[in-house]
Design goal:
Blueprint (H helix, E strand, L loop, with lengths): L8 H5 L1 E3 L11 E7 L5 E8 L15 H8 L3 H13 L3 E6 L4 E7 H7 L5 E6 L5 E6 L5 E3 L6 E5 L8 E2 L2 E4 L5 E3 L1 H7 L12 E6 L6 H10 L6 E6 L14 H15 L4 E6 L4 H12 L7 E4 L1 E4 L5 H16 L3 E5 L17 E2 L7 E10 L6 E6 L11 E2 L12 H7 L12 E2 L2 E4 L4 E7 L2 E6 L1 H19 L7 H4 L6 E2 L23 E2 L1 H12 L1
Parallel strand pairs: 12-25, 13-15, 13-16, 14-15, 16-18, 18-20, 20-24
Antiparallel strand pairs: 1-8, 2-6, 3-5, 3-9, 4-5, 6-7, 10-17, 11-26, 17-19, 20-21, 22-23, 25-26, 27-28
Length: 530
């Protein structure tokens, strides 16, 4: 695909490359339509550097105001950036020091000139096989020279689909074994008496929607008074129910119904954003910086690490770090395509944002249990084939964090073959049932379905975090360092593989520390906090 520069020489001379902004040609392009209309108005998200680095650990969560004053953008950087972009013709929609984010608007011609690129319009295959027409660029971006080092990311010029939902759906009649969320609460021994009262759980969605009738019918069938569910629009996206139930609607209803059934008194906010790098990031920022700080954010969308630009990975990881600093635990699906994560290069890949050390990465199992008694007969790694298996492995971007210090010993057992990934941050941290053949009973667009995938495990763990937060009267933020010190609280999964990697005693790159024993986990956490 041709790269036509429409950047005037004067702008190029006064600009410098933006590290990590290089974009490859989008995968699965179906058609090209020529340059984008230069007069079209578009919006982008710009991220600025921190005033001071975040500390490695915090004794207590900090407030949004504390985050802004200590670790947000400096007033000088924010002023310089807004004045520079305004002078160059862009419109400032928002300038927030706490999230270090500036939202810009302008014509394609203006923003392409400012950031040294050109935009073409193409159609490519998006999530779940739907074709999407979008803006497209290749190569790197530039920023005004006066903002060198100040601007760390510019997202949204290219608005190709960035992530896909990590779930698999089958008709209820075709399912062999399936469980309702309350049955899983019994099987996984969730804390008795906890219902999420006083807690807020945010859910990130990049498409689809929910109808209240579905929720009312579903929760009534479980004998539950449903939670308060609020849809929040981000960057122009809204709740759009009634789409294909095996597409994004299935993801949305799955997430809400799992959290709502397990923590029915929690306040659930569903953030709908465009499926772009900018939209995804803005949803995370808006959710974590909300007036009422959530105890957990559930993310069931992701993509292989190498499908992201370096600037996007960094911006997302920093946003997740900010959320953690404010006491928000972010649960993220580890992927549904085995150790290769759907890549076709013959190598293994970790899924992002689950591979961020600031996300609680959630892997998947196959579960055989008695829902009446809660007894687990067997639990193994979910693997129905390379395109229906839990993700897991090692990040090629993020090094193993200190709290995964014991990973080195495990790495020797799980060392990948040559060309199969590295020994960075290990994924997942925890797990839960994800095999659609032993999946979750849900209701989507008026139909009863069974859905699996690690996208079901993220809301399962988000709900459990909310229950633990309710019981302990505290928010945890990055809970992983604590979890890795515990001697109990998990069902250790020791059988099965996800392709390259095999389960074993203790942590492994298929199911992490294991699936939850909620009551034992709560007791261990209370003991660990003393």
């Amino acid at each position: 695909m041709s790269e036509q520069s429409n950047t005037p020489p004067s702008t190029t001379a006064d600009s410098v490359p933006l590290p990590g902004s290089e974009r490859p040609t989008a995968a699965r392009i179906q058609a090209t339509h020529g340059p984008v209309d230069p007069s079209r108005r578009i919006e982008v998200t710009v991220i600025l550097r921190r005033n001071q680095p975040l500390p490695e650990s915090l004794a207590e969560p900090m407030s949004r105001d504390e985050l802004a004053s200590r670790h947000g953008s400096s007033s000088e950087d924010l002023r310089l950036a807004t004045e520079t972009f305004t002078r160059l013709g862009a419109e400032i929609l928002e300038a927030d020091p706490a999230s270090r984010r500036i939202r810009l608007a302008g014509s394609v011609e203006q923003l392409s000139r400012i950031f040294g690129t050109s935009l073409e319009e193409v159609t490519s295959s998006g999530s779940h096989g739907h074709d999407v027409t979008h803006r497209h660029r290749t190569g790197g971006l530039k920023v005004p020279a006066v903002l060198e080092g100040v601007v760390t990311a510019v997202l949204g010029l290219d608005d190709r689909p960035q992530a896909h939902a990590q779930f698999r759906a089958i008709p209820l009649a075709a399912a062999g074994t399936s469980y309702t969320p309350p049955e899983l609460a019994r099987i996984y021994n969730f804390p008795a008496g906890a219902d999420g009262a006083g807690q807020s759980v945010a859910i990130i969605e990049l498409g689809g929607g929910f109808g209240q009738a579905d929720l009312d019918s579903y929760f009534a069938s479980l004998g539950i008074t449903g939670p308060k569910v609020t849809a929040v629009g981000v960057d122009g996206a809204v709740n759009q129910p009634g789409q294909d139930p095996t597409g994004a609607d299935g993801e949305v209803l799955l997430d809400i119904e799992v959290v709502g059934a397990l923590a029915p008194k929690a306040n659930i906010l569903v953030y709908f954003a465009p499926n772009t790098d900018a939209g995804f990031l803005d949803a995370i920022i808006n959710a974590s910086h909300a007036a009422t700080t959530p105890s957990a954010i559930s993310i069931s969308w992701g993509q292989s690490e190498d499908a992201w630009t370096g600037q996007a990975r960094t911006a997302f990881d920093q946003a997740l770090a900010d959320a953690s600093a404010m006491g928000v635990t972010v649960t993220a699906a580890a992927g549904d395509n085995g150790s290769a994560d759907g890549a076709t290069d013959g190598k293994d890949h970790a899924d992002f944002p689950a591979s961020s050390p600031h996300a609680l990465a959630c892997g998947g199992t196959r579960l055989d249990a008695d829902p009446a008694t809660g007894r687990i007969r067997s639990e193994t790694v979910w693997n129905d084939g390379p395109h229906s298996a839990t993700g897991g492995g090692y990040s090629s971007t993020f090094p193993a964090p200190v709290w995964q210090g014991g990973l080195a010993a495990h790495s020797r057992r799980h060392k990948p073959a040559p060309g199969h990934g590295g020994q960075g941050r290990g994924v997942p941290d925890v797990s839960g049932v994800a095999d659609p053949q032993t999946g979750y009973k849900v209701r989507v667009d008026g139909k009863d379905l069974v859905i699996g995938g690690t996208s079901a495990v993220a809301p399962l763990w988000a709900a459990l975090i909310a229950l633990i937060a309710q019981t302990t009267s505290r928010r945890f933020g990055q809970i992983q360092p604590l979890l890795y010190t515990l001697k109990s609280g998990f069902h250790d999964v020791t059988s099965g593989n996800n392709g390259t990697y095999h389960a074993a005693s203790g942590w492994d790159p298929c199911t992490g520390l294991g699936s939850p024993d909620g009551t034992a986990l709560l007791a261990a956490i209370k003991s660990g906090l003393r």
